[in-house]
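[recover] target loaded
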């Protein structure tokens, strides 16, 4: 997405890029991606890309950008809930007249050669979503999704492609040629041969197996970092559950005294659609060193299926 913004600016002279995201997690992450002081900043190294205004769903109502909005490069980051309400037709401030602008913010965007970049675009196929997007009168709309609905695909890079590139990069590194092109971890499946015959609590056994693997990896990483004088990277285990109640039950089990002597009390984060804002903030701090982050296990239902890029999982 950042590469597309840089490309359209350098080749077409476009200056206004409206990034639309679903939900709070991806929205917050995307703001970090375009905040220059953030570790997640995605335009770092593009020396020919100019300074830009970052306008979000939080600052557009009070920030006085004046004529800069017309002269400068502007990147707008909003989630779909901040420009319309799916259940009602309530008019948000986004569509209301603002004295500092001489129009509503939506009307101001209509005057621009606006490029809309839709993250997880399959989420905006509802009638009201499409109407809200079309209301901004964009010059160009670009969809980014792992589950395209139409055949109008400009470029496709599948999970299989990413895994193959990572394998090639790993082989190249082993051969002493560097490791270019590897973008994701290579997944491996670990299974028990007695899954179908075991008579005990199979879920508990699987949890214990997974956490033992986590503890082994943690010890190896700690040793490697110590021997190479590197800052320790705390590995994170991600657990997927059936529903919210199942997630709560798993968390209670993991934090119990009977599970590894209660070691994971206060080290387990539960993130679901019911999660409080603090849980979302903890989620975004998982890459920070201890004690900023002390969570080693993240439990979710479907909250983290999209747009999550924590590297130490």
């Amino acid at each position: 997405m950042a590469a597309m913004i840089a490309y359209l600016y350098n080749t077409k002279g476009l200056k206004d890029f409206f990034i639309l995201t679903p939900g709070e997690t991806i929205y917050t992450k995307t703001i970090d991606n375009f905040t220059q002081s953030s570790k997640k900043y995605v335009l770092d190294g593009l020396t020919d890309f100019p300074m830009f205004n970052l306008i979000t769903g939080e600052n557009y109502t009070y920030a006085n950008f004046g004529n800069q909005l017309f002269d400068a490069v502007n990147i707008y980051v909003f989630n779909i809930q901040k420009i319309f309400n799916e259940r009602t037709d309530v008019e948000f401030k986004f569509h209301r007249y603002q004295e500092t602008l001489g129009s509503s913010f939506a009307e101001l965007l209509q005057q621009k050669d606006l490029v809309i970049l839709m993250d997880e675009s399959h989420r905006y196929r509802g009638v009201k979503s499409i109407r809200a997007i079309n209301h901004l009168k964009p010059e160009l709309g670009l969809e980014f999704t792992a589950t395209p609905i139409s055949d109008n695909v400009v470029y496709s890079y599948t999970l299989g492609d990413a895994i193959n590139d990572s394998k090639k990069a790993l082989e190249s590194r082993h051969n002493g040629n560097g490791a270019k092109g590897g973008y994701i971890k290579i997944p491996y499946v670990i299974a028990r041969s007695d899954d179908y015959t075991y008579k005990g609590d199979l879920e508990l056994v699987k949890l214990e197996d997974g956490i033992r693997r986590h503890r082994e990896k943690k010890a190896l990483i700690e040793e490697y970092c110590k021997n190479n004088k590197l800052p320790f990277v705390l590995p994170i285990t991600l657990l997927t559950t059936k529903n919210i109640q199942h997630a709560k039950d798993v968390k209670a089990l993991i934090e119990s005294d009977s599970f590894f002597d209660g070691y994971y009390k206060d080290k387990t984060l539960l993130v679901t659609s019911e999660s409080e804002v603090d849980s979302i903030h903890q989620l975004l701090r998982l890459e920070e060193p201890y004690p900023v982050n002390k969570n080693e296990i993240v439990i979710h239902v479907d909250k983290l299926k999209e747009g999550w890029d924590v590297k130490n999982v």
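[recover] notes: Strands lie at 16-21, 52-56, 73-79, 97-98, 103-104, 114-119, 140-144, 237-240, 268-271, 297-300.
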